[in-house]
Amino acid sequence: MDTHRPRRSVLYMPGSKERALQKGKELQTDAIIFDLEDAVAPDMKDIARTQVQEALSAGGYGNRELVIRVNGLSTPWYKDDLKAAVNANPDAILVPKVSTSDDVKMIRDNLASLGAPKSIDLWAMMETPLAMLNAGQIAQSGPSDSYRLRAFVMGTNDLAKETRAVLKEGREPMLAWLSICIAAGRAFDIDIIDGVYNDFKNEQGFFQECEQGRDLGMDGKTLIHPSQLAPCNQVFSPTREAVEWAQKIIEAFEQPENQGKGAITVDGKMVELLHAEMAKRTVVIAKAIAGQTTDL
Ligand code: COA
Ligand code: MG
């Protein structure tokens, strides 16, 4: 059983931007992705790699989950990035454009030959048409005692580019892919983190997209700007009412007269044992957000 770790807000920080790397230490983000890939121009790759390694070694990021995004398997930077990432010993390494279960195997083999600690998790960008077709198989290769595939990150900008689907409010052209990745992830206990919202000054549009991702079943959202943190954390946290309702359900099932029952009535509503399971999860998530660790 894993301890639940909140992944509501996952902020990209370009590895080439020294100021952003420092700022990450003060921001209310559950996780940080130190980016060596798309946010970094080709002539800045070496500087970014060094800066990210130094930032992680110097520390100061508290209990934020620290993730390094390396360049993709087929790029000239991948090998050096992976080596530097392993040396920095982050919580996870995020690999772009994972498209097959063989890619996952290859990354695991590369990590093993670098002698990477087995505690490092693997996160995969889901952002190619092939990944959408192979989502189930990629997820199936996730559970492992070492380099566990812990999260899918939706790469909606790359998906739009590769599929020619249009990125627009409501994301109708993308809903099928978002949902298929959620189903694949849930089937094998892999978290799913939604893609970025580019128009970061559009507060209302961003809020609605956070809510849409949450309602689809996402665990959180990737972010590009600090101003997106507070609304995102709000949307992906259980409300006080939801936590109170969850506690009520749990308590009701614990009553002696309800022992052994599969369905009961709480506040006039039918509640089943499956709702009690969901309620326990809500409480665990709320506690984890409040900084208390409980097993899921
Ligand atoms: N992480 C940490 N800090 C960030 C940040 C980020 N992603 N984006 C901006 N900031 C900081 C800035 O350093 C600045 O800090 P300061 O005022 O204390 O010096 C503050 O937030 C305000 O930034 P602002 O001037 O509004 O933004 P900008 O115009 O400099 O940059 C972007 C806008 C979009 C270019 C920038 O936010 C960015 O690079 N985001 C990440 C992009 C990325 O990683 N993309 C790859 C994944 S899709
Ligand atoms: Mg991408």
Provide the helix percentage.
40-55%
CATH topology of the largest domain: TIM Barrel
Q: Categorize the overall geometry.
A: globular
Taking the alpha carbons of the first and last residues, their distance comes to 6 Å
Estimated share of beta-strand residues = 15-25%
- Count of strand segments: 10
Number of domains: 2
Question: Can you characterise this structure?
Answer:
This protein is of the alpha/beta class. It has two domains: 9-235, Alpha-Beta Barrel (TIM Barrel); 240-295, no CATH class. It has helices at 18-23, 45-58, 78-88, 101-113, 129-133, 135-140, 156-163, 175-187, 203-216, 229-235, 240-254, 273-289; strands at residues 9-14, 31-35, 65-69, 92-95, 121-126, 149-154, 191-194, 220-223, 263-266, 269-272. The strands form two sheets. The protein has an eight-stranded parallel β-barrel, surrounded by six helices. A two-stranded antiparallel sheet has the order 9-10. Helix 2 packs parallel to helix 3 (78-88) and helix 11 packs across helix 12 (273-289). The chain is globular. Bound molecules: coenzyme A and magnesium ion (MG).
Q: What layout of secondary structure does this protein have?
A:
Layout (H helix, E strand, L loop, with lengths): L8 E6 L3 H6 L7 E5 L9 H14 L6 E5 L8 H11 L3 E4 L5 H13 L7 E6 L2 H5 L1 H6 L8 E6 L1 H8 L11 H13 L3 E4 L8 H14 L3 E4 L5 H7 L4 H15 L8 E4 L2 E4 H17 L7
Helix pairs in contact: 2-3, 11-12
The protein binds coenzyme A (COA) and magnesium ion.
Coenzyme A binds next to strand 1 and helix 1.
